[in-house]
Design goal:
The complex is a heterodimer.
Chain A (H helix, E strand, L loop, with lengths): L8 E5 L2 E5 L1 H19 L6 E3 L6 E3 L4 H23 L3 H20 L4 H32 L4 H5 L8 H15 L8 H4 L8 H20 L1
Antiparallel strand pairs in A: 1-2, 3-4
Chain B lengths: L1 H25 L9 H10 L11 H23 L4 H21 L3 H12 L4 H15 L4 H11 L2 H4 L1 H13 L25 H25 L5 H21 L5 H25 L1
Helix pairs in contact in B: 1-10, 1-11, 2-10, 3-4, 3-10, 4-5, 4-6, 6-9, 6-12, 9-10, 10-11
Classes of the chains: A mainly alpha, B mainly alpha.
Chain lengths: ~220, ~280
């Protein structure tokens, strides 16, 4: 079945495999654009209105906080790009776990209680999700003898069990929370776009990629 | 291609104008002329423009270009009969664009609009289930294959009406004044759009025109099949009129109710797709 368009670039070096289809290229370009925004943008200064009056104040992001969050946002963008172009199941799970770590890192430097609590709770979910995530990769290798998505897509390779696919999707949903972002809403409310946008963007990108992966393998 | 993009922008804005006019007439108001949205876009193009002092400047401007870019890409995919999965991906990426619009300015109203946009992301699952059901029937994600399938077996609208209804609700959730349009409701001024004015708002209007055209075109291509351009345009007007009736007669839901209804629709669609998968 033609799922994401015909691959127009396949790169193989050692055990690495990268391939680009129109679908993965769309996701890659989007991730690249936001990573560039994270590199060159200065963060917004979130305006809050004082309750019960006319006053308002703008929250500033300090230089040290900005540097750390920018680094984490760029790392998150790179991990997302890796996840959307890789053609290897293990590398895919590795990049996704990196996305989960970077998401916590992006908001970890924000010194606001509700943001820290949300990041901590999300971190626990992301940590738990690594079990089904890496378990799915291990089970794929054990049952089919390969981790290459191109090989797994061929009719000659043993079929990947729906249970393994479900574990993979569960792992990705745990790492990114997509599409149930409501669980991460307090994180998105943290000041400092574009860094905080990387949390939702990376979640969405890995969710969109895992849809293609489970359909291909 | 450029002339088709321009046509899509202007026709999409005309459809939004018809939408506003119809709602107004149902509510016994005179309403604006049907070309009001086109006038808005032209007017904003020549108004004075600046970037708020609290904004993340590059993101504030770049997000407008990105929004136009993704929907132009979506139009290209639809016209070339590309993969439906790409359309689905772009539709979901639009959430991030709305989020980016809202968060880039530093405004609390924009931020609430952006956050609301992201928390209502569960509404996209019916769209994915729709795509999955279509693929189950036609054994392809390619729009060209899907339209070819319908030439042999008849419109999918009659074969699988529930996914058609789900996609209709997804389009409804993107319409101004819809029961699910919590991202731009009045208690948060204009939501994620609040701080984008002047030429940035004109860019946003261009995006809205393109988005409306692409979504309606996709609906017709997926559920009715290949049609001459005139029939497609008439079909779009008819769908917009039906959406306007829903928008005019239904109250706007609260964010909590919106998410609840969307999750309910998602659950129904997942069960339906599961039954179809088992039967197939």
């Amino acid at each position: 079945m033609n799922i994401a368009g015909e691959p127009f670039l396949v790169l193989e070096f050692a055990d690495e495999l990268v391939y680009l289809t129109p679908y993965t290229t769309t996701l890659l370009l989007f991730a690249l654009a936001f990573t560039i925004f994270a590199i060159i943008s200065r963060p917004e200064r979130q305006v809050d209105i004082v309750f019960g009056g006319d006053a308002f104040y703008a929250k500033k992001t300090s230089l040290s906080e900005m540097r750390f969050r920018r680094f984490m946002a760029i790392a998150c963008g790179l991990a997302s790009m890796g996840a959307v172009v890789t053609g290897d199941i293990f590398n895919f799970t590795l990049f996704i776990s990196l996305v989960g770590i970077c998401n916590v890192g992006i908001v970890a430097a924000v010194k606001i209680r509700h943001v820290q609590e949300a990041a901590f709770q999300y971190g626990i979910v992301a940590l738990s999700a690594t079990v089904p995530l890496f378990g799915a990769a291990a089970l794929t290798a054990a049952t089919t003898g390969t981790l290459s998505m191109i090989e797994l897509g061929k009719a000659t390779t043993a079929a990947v069990s729906p249970v393994i696919k479900a574990l993979l999707v569960l792992g990705v949903m745990g790492e990114g929370m997509a599409p149930f972002y409501a669980a991460k809403a307090e994180m998105f409310r943290a000041p400092g776009a574009p860094y905080v946008i990387m949390c939702s963007l990376s979640s969405l990108l890995i969710f969109l990629r895992v849809i293609e992966v489970v359909l291909v393998i | 291609m450029i002339e088709y993009v321009l046509f899509a922008v202007f026709f999409g804005l005309l459809l939004l104008g018809i939408h506003r006019k119809t709602i107004a007439r149902i509510q016994r108001r005179p309403g604006p002329p049907v070309w009001q949205e086109i006038l808005h876009m032209l007017k904003f193009s020549f108004k004075s423009t600046w970037i708020p002092a609290t904004a993340s400047g590059t993101l504030f401007v770049g997000i407008v270009l990105l929004a136009i870019g993704i929907w132009t890409a979506a139009l290209f995919v639809v016209l070339t009969g590309g993969s439906l999965l790409i359309i689905f991906g772009i539709y979901m990426l639009h959430k991030i664009v709305e989020h980016g619009f809202g968060l880039s300015s530093g405004s609390p109203y924009g931020k609430f609009g952006g956050v609301r946009s992201v928390i209502s992301a569960a509404s996209e699952i019916p769209l994915f289930v729709t795509v999955a059901v279509i693929a189950l029937f036609t054994e392809s994600f390619s729009l060209a294959d899907i339209t070819a399938y319908q030439e042999v077996h008849g419109p999918l609208l009659f074969l699988v009406p529930l996914p058609a209804l789900a996609m209709y609700i997804v389009i409804l959730s993107k319409m101004p004044s819809s029961p699910f349009s919590i991202v731009e409701s009045k208690e948060i001024v204009s939501g994620y759009k609040t701080e984008h004015f002047g030429v940035w708002r004109a860019g946003l209007e261009v995006t809205n025109g393109l988005k409306t055209y692409v979504l309606l075109f996709t609906f017709l291509a997926v559920f009715i099949g290949s049609l001459p351009l005139w029939w497609i345009l008439i079909g779009m007007v008819l769908i917009i009129l039906s959406l306007s009736f829903v928008c005019a007669l239904c109250p706007m839901l609260s964010p909590f109710d919106t998410v609840t209804v969307q999750i309910l629709i998602t659950a129904i669609m997942v069960v339906y797709a599961g039954i179809l998968w088992v039967v197939a």
